[in-house]
Amino acid sequence: MHERHMASTRVLGHSMARGIAAAATRDDHGNTAAQHGKGGTGSDTKASGQTLVADGSRLAWQRPDLAVVLVNPQIPQNCGNIARTCAATKVALHLVGPLGFELNDTKLKRAGLDYWDWVDVKVHTDIESFLRFYSGLQGEKSLVAFSKFGDKHYAAEGLYNQANGTRCFLMFGAETTGLPDIAHDAATDVVKIPMHNFEHVRSLNLATSVGIGLFEALRQKDGADFLPEISHTV
Questions:
Q1: Which residue, 155, 128, 112, 156, is CA-closest to 20?
Q2: Nearest alpha carbon to residue 72 among 24, 4, 134
Q3: Residue 218: inside a domain, yes or no?
Q4: CA-closest candidate to residue 69, choices 113, 27, 121
Q5: Contacting residues for 234 by C-beta, under 8 A, at least 6 apart
């Protein structure tokens, strides 16, 4: 999957009543993530790569060893569905612009239902800004790019758990163009989800691909016997 995007960080969904965009912080130009939308970029802020959560509630329970990165996502329904998956797995979501939709898009909010309050979302203006954020992270980390040009199977054993405590970012490109070359070059590994009918099917749906990759990463990190107890508090 190919394309690029971030700088300022915003957290979505302090309340669905305000809408997703209302929770977005502003960049140095006074623009919110929602105002960038449709290919807008904006510029880096001093808070680049920093999660701005008023009460820290999302950070209190999200797992620190996994994150999903969407580079230049174009379809709001896909993004909303992926956000719901991230909420269910306690995994942070990075949106790398330019985005193909506004963050206050009704379709985006509808697909994510009322789960936006449970997702730690960071918005990066472009791929260069995200890569600067990633490079500045301390400790063991890996950046796994999902692409039809991958040279490794997405479920290769040990791929997501190369060392104890490794923080693994799963990076996916735009629905139409995939990941840009700069993302391929920066990746620790470039992996492929195999398809058996390339003749008639160009690609898998983005939300489906994220689900496949994320749950394989969870299997490798947590083990196949890990079954969390159902919580009745959400």
A1: 112
A2: 4
A3: no
A4: 121
A5: 118
User: Residue 44's domain is classified under what CATH number?
Assistant: 3.40.1280.10
Residue 49 lies in a domain: yes
Any residues with CB less than 8 A from the CB of 177 and at least 6 apart, and which? 1, 2, 3, 72
Check residue 168 and give its pLDDT. 95
Question: How many alpha carbons fall within 13 Å on the CB side of residue 116?
Answer: 29
Distance CA 64, CA 78 (A): 24
**Domain-located, residue 134:** yes
> What pLDDT score was predicted for residue 106?
74
- My answer on whether omega of the bond before 98 falls inside 30° of 0, hence cis, is yes
Half-sphere exposure of 21 (CA within 13 A, CB side): 14
Taking only the tens place, the pLDDT of each residue in 153-208 is 999 999 998 766 689 999 999 998 999 999 999 999 999 999 887 777 778 999 99
C-alpha distances out from residue 63 to 24, 102, 126, Å = 22, 27, 25
Spans of the chain, pLDDT less than 50: 1-56
The domain tally of the chain equals: 1
- Residue 218 burial (CB count, 10 A): 19
Name the residue among 125, 87, 79 with its Cα closest to residue 105.
79
**Which string of DSSP letters, residue by residue, matches 106-157?**
HHHHHHHGGGGGG--EEEESSHHHHHHHHHT--SSEEEEEE-TT-SEETT-T
Give the residue numbers spanning the domain of 153. Answer: 32-208
What pLDDT is attached to residue 161? 82
